[in-house]
Amino acid sequence: MDINEWWGLVERAREAAGDRADDRDPPDDPLPGALTDVLAALEPERIAAFAVTAVDVTRSAYRRPLWNAAYLIEGGCGDDGFMDFRDGLALLGRETFTRAVADPDSLAGLPVVIRMSRGESGWIGYESLNTPTAEAYGRLRGETASLDAAVEAALRDRIHPADPAGESWDAEDADAAHRHLPRLAALFLD
């Protein structure tokens, strides 16, 4: 699937979710359901292509500086948490995602991050982009095993990096956080 089409589908779901598209915290979060509905309007093969492109998108964010930003924002962030963070970041839309991958400190300007820094409700992470994809596919086909097989086949020859890209520093080192992520450090450490 063309990357522009992929982001366009995410944007259509964000538009359907309206002003609640930027926070995964509420129990009645409308965005996953909106994305499921958008995807269910596609042919099953296109849904599988969306799932494959989602892997490519989130892998592009497999970067140590972004992981350290997630660590600050979430008060800790392991492997699974960083996968969820990247999936949720993709749901924030292309502009926010691209900016955050290039400059993780830009996340400090997001209202949801500001709320989180105050100890208020809010969350960026989303457990898995696979969920709305599988739900949409299941609506059309009545099963998801063929989706799993198609995605696995498409990704079979792709190499997942063993380690995140980018400069690494100790995420718990306040001085390093202030040097590398000054806006986020001001929100979460000061």
Describe the model.
The protein is mainly alpha-helical and 190 residues long. It contains eleven helices and no strands. The protein has helices at residues 3-17, 31-40, 44-60, 64-74, 79-91, 94-102, 111-117, 130-141, 145-155, 174-180, 182-188. It starts with a helix and ends with a helix. The mean pLDDT is 95.
Name its key features.
11 helices, 190 residues, 63% helix, mainly alpha
Structural class: mainly alpha
Could you tell me the mean pLDDT?
A: 95
Q: What's the overall geometry?
A: globular
Rg from Cα: 17 Å
Strand content: under 5%
Tell how many strands the DSSP assignment holds: 0
State the separation between the terminal residues, measured CA to CA. Answer: 43 Å
How do the SSEs run, as a string of H and E? HHHHHHHHHHH
Low-pLDDT parts are: none
Secondary structure: helix percent: 55-70%
Largest sheet descriptor: none
Total helical elements:
11
